Amino acid sequence: MATTDLNIQSAEYSVRDPATGSPGRLLCLDIYRGLMVAGMIIVDNPGSDERAYWPIVHATWNGWTPADFIFPSFLFLVGISLVYSTAARRQRAQSNRQILWHAFKRSLILIAIGLLVNASPLYGLDLHTWRFEGVTQRIALCYFFALMLELWAGRRGQVLACVGCLIGYWALVRFVPVPSAGIPGRDIPFLDQVQNLPAWLDRKLFAGHLYDGTSDPEGIIHTIPAIATTLMGVLTGHWLKSNRKAAELIGGMIFLGVLAVLGGELWSRWFAINKHMWTSSFVLFSGGFCLLFLSLLYWATEVRRWRGRWTMPILVFGMNAIAGFVADSLIYGPGYTFTVTTESGTKMNWHEAAQAHLEAAGLSVANASLVYSFGGLLICWIMLWFLWRKKIFLKV
């Protein structure tokens, strides 16, 4: 079996089985991760960018859709996983310095994976527009900073760091003047799509290399609140590792999840829920979803023991998340860079041509887009199934 060890995917979940009291593995975390990998592929590969069904399209700016919960879920799971992996390394008598060095190497590899995916010829690489920021780059940074807090800060320090990230980010975005634009809320609209501090810094550092030309959803400054999302996972990991009974574990996650959702909704009156800018209200709102969804999966798989063959298709993704990310890029990249020529001589992208063929077959625009998305999901699953069958799990 070919494996290394990245906590975005599998970790050594040495936990007490809620049913038997014996050591076991939290299947709910792998199920959660697998569902999010599948969701990522569906959301990343719509046939129609504008008219797909609402749940699988990211919010344009302020507001939210179910698709916006996918990335926070990955960071939340990274936080949970690093708690278990750090504890396992300490049991092997590794020092904090050794653990940190290992995490540093992991983070560099994650950043390299993101840069290589962005540089793939499948994306029509142009060195003048090569995107430097990205999903795995953000995961790497959040993982590394959260792990440092896990090593040297107690639970109180982690809570204070989480709160500090949320309030500090809000203060930066709300009160620090945007150069050549002014103070948000006074000289320019608050949370303007172009004139905001995170977008300004990204343009200053990476002009011409941004996701949409003027800003980047994985930008530098809003990595700060993304660290808070990861810390929510860290705190949840310690909650799961405690010796509490299953009912208390679930009840605590439900209570805090509802509280976080309500807190995010309340804060959104002044600091709108916005995934692109990863606003503090979005952290609370999405973190609440993560807690509630995890509590449901924990109850189903760990307490009620609803396991069996139905888990295999999900675990194919959940046990090979990095491979899933790469497989997604193999579908996403060609869909936007490869072109086909129609009978009329018109050239269009691969995904646009597929969408047109599905609509010509009688499907509505939204249904055609959904079929294309699930087609991409199936192709990715088949690729990962071959790895699963050979017991190959690609990790970092």
Fold and architecture overview:
This protein is mostly helical and 396 residues long. It has one domain. 60% of the residues lie in helices and 3% in strands. The strands form two sheets. The chain has a two-stranded antiparallel sheet with strand order 1-2. Strands 3-4 form a two-stranded antiparallel ribbon. It starts with 14 loop residues before the first strand and ends in a 7-residue tail after the last helix.
Write the layout of secondary structure elements.
Layout: E1 15-16, E2 23-24, H1 27-44, H2 70-91, H3 96-118, H4 135-152, H5 155-175, H6 197-206, H7 223-241, H8 246-267, H9 280-303, H10 312-318, H11 321-337, E3 339-341, E4 347-349, H12 350-360, H13 365-389
Antiparallel strand pairs: 1-2, 3-4
Short description:
Helices cover 60% and strands 3% of the residues.
| Class per helix and strand makeup | mainly alpha
Per DSSP E runs of 2 or more residues, the count of β-strands stands at 4
**Low-confidence parts:** 1-23
Q: Going across the biggest sheet, name each strand in turn.
A: 1-2
Shape: globular
| Series of H and E elements | EEHHHHHHHHHHHEEHH
The overall pLDDT average reads 88
What is the overall number of helices?
13
Radius of gyration over alpha carbons?
21 Å
Terminal residue distance: 14 Å
What's the number of structural domains? 1
Fraction of helical residues? 55-70%
Major sheet summary line: 2 strands, antiparallel
Strand content: under 5%
